[in-house]
Each structure stands twice: as C-alpha cells, then as structure tokens.
Amino acid sequence: MAGEQMVCPLCLNQADDIRMLPCLHSFCRRCLERAITRDHCPSPTSVEPKDILECPTCGQSVTLNSAGVDTFPSNQFISNIFDVMVPQQSEYENGETAERSITGRRWCSSCDEGSKATSVCKICNEYLCDHCVKAHQRVRLTKDHYIERFALDNMSLPFHSHQHPQLLSPSIHSSSMQHHSIADRPNHCCSKHEQEVLRLYCDTCSQAICRECTMMDHVGHSFIYLQEAIENSKIVTERLLTDAKTGIKALEESIALTQGMAERVEMRAQGVATDVRNIVRRHMSALEERERDLLRRVEKIRQVKGKSLHLQVDDLRLGLSSLLQTVDEAENLIHTGNDLDILKTRDKMVAEMQNVRKLRGHLQPHEDDSILFTPPDPALFNAVSKMGIITSSAYAPNCFATGDGLKKALKSKGAFFVIHTKDHHGDPKILGGDPVECIIQSPEGALYRTDVMDRQNGTYTVTYRPQLEGQHIISVVIRGKHIKDSPFVVNVRSGRNYNSIGNMLLQFGSEGEADGMLCRPWGVCCDKDGYIIVADRSNNRIQVFKPDGQFHHKFGSSGTRNGQFDRPAGVAVDLQNRVVVADKDNHRIQIFDIEGNFILKFGEKGNKNGQFNYPWDIATARFLGTEGSSNGQFLRPQGVAVDQEGNIVVADSKNHRVQIFQPNGNFLCKFGTNGTGPGQLDRPSGICVSPEGLIIVVDFGNNRVQVF
C-alpha cells in the first residue's frame, strides 16, 4: 500500500518529494510546480497577481504565497512508512534483504555485554540475550511484547512460543500471529546511525527513528514503537476509508438530488414561462378585441356624421346655384330687358329669396366634430404594466443580516439579529417560508443551532444565548449557501458583576466656569467612540471629554437662539452619532452633530402634542404616558433609558418608582415604592441599563445609587 502511495498519480514515477494539498491528495513536487497558474484578475484588495494551484484530482483551488509549493507540508508520514515497509532498490541488488531475512549469528542489541542473542522481540525488532529477555518482560512498556526464541542448533531459525512458553507473555501468546506478519518484514537501519535499526516512531516529527535518535535530535519528543504506529495508522486509515465510502455515497446521493432539482427548475421555469405567455396573450387578445370594437364605433360615427354633412352641402350647393342663376338673369334684364321683363324678374327674385329663406336651417353644420375617447383609469394601465408578479425563493448571496448580535454578546444573556432576504433579482422578499438556518460554533468547536423566527414578511429574527466566553462563529445559510458576509465572528464576554462595586476608575471636573469645569451637571452619555458628553446645566453649555476625562471641546451658551441653552438637562447620542439635548427651561429639544454644529430643534412650552413643560431627560426612543399615578402614567419623570431588547425604562420621580414599557409602548412592569429601605426610592432621577440588563438608578432623595 505504501509503495502505491509513493507513485505520483500524474507522472506515474516514484516520488522523492511528496506534497500534500489541503484536500489530502498528494503529488510530487515537479508535477505541482507545473500545475501552477497565474491569476491575472486579482481581487480589488490585492495588489499583484497571485499564483493559483488547482488540485488535478478534485479541482479544489488553492492560492499560493511567496513560498510556492513549499506552502504544502511534505507527506512525511507516508514517506517514513515507505522507508520502513519497502526495501530500497540497492538492498535488493546487494542482497541485503535476503541476508537479513536468513539470520546468521546475532548478538544482543539491548545490552553492551556482547552476549549472544537467543531470542527476538517481534514487536520492537530487538535481538535479546536470555538476561535481556527477562528484563524485557519485566518492564511495563514491553512486558506484553511477543518474543520468539531461536532454534537451538544454529540460532538462526526461530520457533514458536509453545516450545518455550516460559519466555512469552501470556497476553501476547493468543495474538502472536497478528504481529508475526509485521515483525517478519526486513529491518531497516537509520540513515544517521547506520548500525541502529529503525524501531521507533516519533509522533512529534512524524518520522521513523532509532534508539540513538531519541537521545539526540528527538530529545523530549513523543514516540512509540514503529509497529504500533503502523497498526495505529492502519486502524485510522480503515476508519477514514469507512468515512470516505460513506461520504462517497452521500456525495453521489447529493449529486443525484441536485441534478434532479436542476431538472425540476428547468421544467418549472418552462411551465411558468408558458403561463406568462398565455396570460399576457389572453389579455392582449382582449385588448385587441376592445380596440376593434372601439374603432368600429369611431367608424360608424364618422360615416353617419359625414353622410349628414355631405347631404347638407349638396342642398346648400343646389340653393347657391339657383340663386346665382337668378341673380345673373335679373341683372341682364334690368340692363337690357323691357318693362314687362323687369316685372317678371321681380316676381322670380321674390320666389328665389323665399327658397333661400328655406335654407336658413342649413346655414350651420348639422353635425359637430365631437368624437371623444375616454381612456380607462390610469390604475388599469398601471395594473396592466405591472400585471403579474414573478417570485422565487430567497437567494442566499443577496440576503444580509443586521443587529448587535452579529458584533457582540454577553455570556448567558440573550442576543439577537435580523436576517433580510432577497430573491434572485435582488428584490426584497415580502413573504416568509424560506429554510433559514443559523449554526453557531463555540470556542471549543461545539456546534449548536439557534432559534429562527419567521416574521412572514421576508425577515427572520435569530436569537441565541452563548454559554462560553470567547470567539463564536455564526453561520447563516439558506439551502446550504451562506448569506452575505457569513460566517460572522462574535466576541462573547462576561457581563459586569454588580454585587460588589470596586474602586473608582476615573473622576474629572470641578466646580467652575472654565473649560473642563462644571456647575450642576445633569445629563451624561457616551458616543460610539467613548467620548463622554456632559450637560453642564448652570453653565448653559455641553462639554465633550475624551475617554480618559481630558477636556476636548464645548458648545452652547445662554440664550434662546438656535444652539443656545437655558439650563440643559438630559443629553443622549442617537444611532447617527448626533447629540440630542433636552433644553429644559427653553422647553425644547435641540440636535447637534458631535462637533456641536446645530442641526434642528423642535418643541415649545405647553401641554399639547409636540409641546414640552421643562423636559428633564431624553433617550433615542419614542415617548409615552400621561399625568397620573396609574400604570403608564407619570408624575415628573426625570430619567429614561432603553435596554438591549428595546424596552423603555423610565424614572417616574414623584411617583417614587421605575416603570418599564415594551417597544410598542405597552406597559410591562414597575418596581419601587417611597422609602429609604433597600429597593425603595425617593425621587429617582438618572437611570440607565447596562449591557447585562441591570437597571442602575440614581436614588436622588436617598443620596445613593441602586442596582436592580
């Protein structure tokens, strides 16, 4: 078997430098170097073309670094086993193999006393004298080895253990034939220590070694007997073969399944295309029939109107001709006729004028040009232009995920993110039903699935609760394909322990008006970069400090204009990193960028919607409630925060309690009563929620901070 592996499957030559690819296929160095190709279309992030190596067997591509083929490990295990199991050609030519197999006189190789060997250990290929045989059987590592004693006549032919049972270990006697075929193979000497036989295998270096090697190049390494390594390799190889055969069957079934699905896609696409053509042609036929009907109506109207007008024109032309003739005759008779002719002309003119009066009803056209077409409602055109919808399943490479749960999480705490699906055209899906799977790999390598909730609108919510700290890998797949940017790497850490508060880490500021000094500061928050933003209330300004407490910049002054304040209280930073300030005594909210540039404002004094009455605090979430002491009502609320799940937490100051609302504004729960005991509150003001879900309340009237 080893000899077959040492023949390169490409050039069919015995290889002297085997390299193993990541796909576990092995080839000689020369063939691998010939298979390298240059990628002249590198990715946008790469600067130079890269060398690509494609496995000649399975086609898997590997990008090489500057080391080239040396990137791949040498298949030392196969090479070393080959060195031990297959005799070199020179040995066959010199007759060394035959000479070793027909053993002549041997000396004990285990001791330095020069004693004649009487036995051989078939496991470690040691020639032993009688004294060393007994020692061999006493040592725990070798006491179960199979030992054969040489024949008594010339010590050259071994005979089996039943002739000298006292020299054999009982546990090995029953399995002696199992080791016999391996131990009978010819010995091979160490290339560095020519007098030493290769009897051991170094697990650290994956190399066959001798006893001398253990004391020189392999000091401190882990090694076992060579035959044991061979047997272990055989067992592992057999297991791998079983797994490989199972994998072959699974791959063949997958190929058949995938090919069947491809055929179904073709048939389904053809069927849908036929349905589209039929529906469109049916609508086109209806439209064409309607067109013919409308055109027939136009033609009928044209004919009737045209005939009426033509008859009218004929009557008018006849009257005009008669009148012209009468006028001509009358003019001639007046100039050339006698008195009697003039009298007759008068009568004729009177009669002709009476005929003209009869044509008065023909002087205006009997028809108009009113032929109107009233088009259908534009909605019909839009409906026709968007007639029918082609939908497909979600296409993983077009889908993406958003949410804090893709970036960070706390041990034993819930985290979540949302998956947004798109189809093969890149259009957002509006229906659910896709097989979205999410698998998380813990730092220990364990895999577990997470809960995926189908919202039935093309989005899916994934929730998970990591139990270990460290780097977790989250894979989101749809039908076996990763969505965009998957797998994701999430660092999980333990939350803070508030059972005991340690020493103060940092303090800054003192009373005053200079930069970095404060006068009755109220609101405080941090932006995404860790800068600390303080509402310096009595100084009518906002101050920004570095994460280490050093003054950075300030903005605002006393007044009512844009960017000015009258005792600013609450301050918060929204998702766009904008600073939102509750300008308390100006009864308004002002929004700035992080540098302090005014963006917008809203609110004025009053109790109507959109008006404020001394707003004390602010958070980037919706507001709710009315005045009172019932659930969902407030008396002078002075603190608000939003937890990781979007719940709104309010310090209801004059009700001496904290109320919690769901993201949709529905009342969830409350805690706290007026008092000085643990859990009781006296005018709670500032409030925040830690990433661990703990609610930290400034118990103003009791001069303390409580954690719930």
TrEMBL record:
The organism of origin for this protein: Magallana gigas (Pacific oyster)
InterPro entries: 6-blade_b-propeller_TolB-like, Filamin/ABP280_repeat-like, Filamin/ABP280_rpt, Ig-like_fold, Ig_E-set, NHL_repeat, TRIM45/56/19-like, Znf_B-box
Chain ranges passing through the membrane: none
Protein name per Swiss-Prot or TrEMBL: Tripartite motif-containing protein 71
Family the UniProt entry places it in: Belongs to the TRIM/RBCC family.
Pfam families noted in UniProt: Filamin, NHL, zf-B_box, zf-C3HC4
Molecular-function GO term, any one: zinc ion binding
Record carries keyword Zinc-finger: yes
Keywords annotated in UniProt: Metal-binding, Repeat, Zinc, Zinc-finger
